[in-house]
Amino acid sequence: MIELQQLTKRYGDRLAVDDLTFTIPTGLVTGFLGPNGAGKSTTMRMILGLDRPTSGRVLVNAIRYDQLVAPLTHVGALLEAKAAQSGRSAYNHLLWLARSNRIPDRRVGEVLDAVGLQDVARKRIGGFSLGMGQRLGIAAALLGDPEVLLFDEPVNGLDPEGIVWIRTLMKSLAAEGRTVFVSSHLMSEMALTADHLIVIGHGRLLADLPMGEFIDRNSRSHVRMVTEQPEALMDALDGEAVAYRRGADGAFEAVGVEPGRIAKLASRHGLVLTELSLQRASLEEAFMEMTADAVEYHAGPATGAAVKAPAAPAHEQRKQG
Amino acid sequence: MTTATIAPPVRPGLLSRCAPVISAEWTKLRTLRGPRAMLIAGFVAVVGGGALLTFFINRNFNSLPGDAPFEPVRSSFGGLVLGQLAMVMLGVTMIGGEYASGMIRATLAAVPERGLLLAAKSLVLTAVTLAAGLVTAFSTFFVGQAMLGKHGVGIGDPNVLRAVLGGAFYLTLIALFSLGVTTILRRQTLALGILMPFFFLISGILQAIPGVTKATQFLPDQAGQKFLQIHHQSKDAFGPWTGALITMAWVALALLGAWVTLRRRDASAAS
Hints:
The complex is a heterodimer. Chain A has 12 helices and 13 strands. By secondary structure, chain A is an alpha/beta fold. Chain A has 2 domains: about 1-210, Rossmann fold; about 220-280, Alpha-Beta Plaits, CATH 3.30.70.100. A 6-stranded mixed beta sheet of chain A has the order 5-6-7-3-8-9, with helices on both faces. Chain A has a 4-stranded antiparallel beta sheet with strand order 11-12-10-13. A 3-stranded antiparallel beta sheet of chain A has the order 2-1-4, covered by helices on one side. Chain B is mainly α. In chain B, about 70% of the residues lie in helices and about 0% in strands. Chain B has helices at about 15-30, 35-60, 70-75, 80-100, 105-110, 115-150, 160-185, 190-210, 215, 220-225, 240-265. In chain B, helix 2 (about 35-60) packs antiparallel against helix 4, helix 2 (about 35-60) packs parallel to helix 6 (about 115-150) and helix 6 packs antiparallel against helix 7 (about 160-185). Chain B is elongated. Chain B starts with 13 loop residues before the first helix and ends in a 7-residue tail after the last helix. The interface between A and B is large, with 41 and 38 residues.
């Protein structure tokens, strides 16, 4: 289990990570979300003991990372593609990693098979594509058969096939009972893979909640209606005090109402709806709004009261977490 | 949520923590082509340079200037100034290559005990350069003495074995010094840019400036090269053993700086 306690990292006068406290839930895929520059990579490096926190600490299985015996057998990490010397073969790169943690040599072949690099195992890493480099990084993370896996922006620069492969891999790793902590700046990507979400902006915790809860809270839905009798529909909606607006294409959009109620209403008034659907606002928008608020909140205290409200769920969560 | 720290599991002893790290560093070194090429280049430069110099010394022995006692061992190490650059490159790339490629993060995630990492790197570098240094030193000695003919010395003559072994240790010390400096700088290109010209040019130029000749004897390379002499020269400020100690002190200083840097700084390359 990985716990962050008041973790803070300061570079000169810039706070990269600001008082982060959360626990990564075990056995799930947790999405670590934030815009570029939010402090995700810095946080991940601090978890691995690569960067020193200015204050606060991270505990892995209740001890500091640098006190772990054979750390690769506890935590595997993909930090960046090709964190490897180009002159060495994929096999030999994994071999020195294995030796450093007393991992048996046969694991090297196993993980190369697992990521599909068995045919290029003896080829120099310098000739690898970005996707192959990413697969090698994942092989390195899996090498020690660790219970925790950290992936920093694993889909960056991958082709669609590679993206699907990584998504499937992360889910299957969690299905095996492993903890997967994956950073991304794309909400849409996380919506497809993550069970739990941790959102940061400007180094601060904005949300720590199950994926489903995030979707429920943040997807403001509306009902979309299209009809060939707009006047009649307007009368009907006004008659039942349903708030609506006209979309750009002439469709009606109503907020805070169930599609079923509209269907009944239309039926009572003898209206024909050629389209009736529930539209969800994209999670990407909800995420951008959440992080944009954090930015504004930081920049101008004068507007604090106005922008604080939407960020409230995050503060509630922080108290609970 | 447990916030209290549980006592860490009992860590294995230093020796058994060291073994896998040494094994990993050795695997790294032998799985790149560069190090092997550097050792061969160093051998060729030292032995070739020594053979060339001793050949010409022998041909022109009677017309050689000066009244200082002739140094046959030192002459057979005539290629050392060039050959030591291979040791500089080996020491620099041993960790510089990891900073340049970003692999240092993988290394430090695998071996978070940074003092142990530096010790393992130093140990592997010492073993490799000492083995290569011994082969190089004895080869250049015997080739050089053969070239010198009647002006040469035998390995059993006074101080000769000490001087030849000193040549091998000198190469090791230069490699270790370079490893230390590179770890402090955390940048391969910067380290090469400082160390290569220093050992190849600047040290020699400084030596030729009349006012500072005395002081330059204390530089890591010039102090160490005293060990190749079998006679006392009038300009010497100190003898071979003091020279060796001075170079070892430089190496110790560089590695101490490396240890402090590695422990304090974040894992990324200096920017």
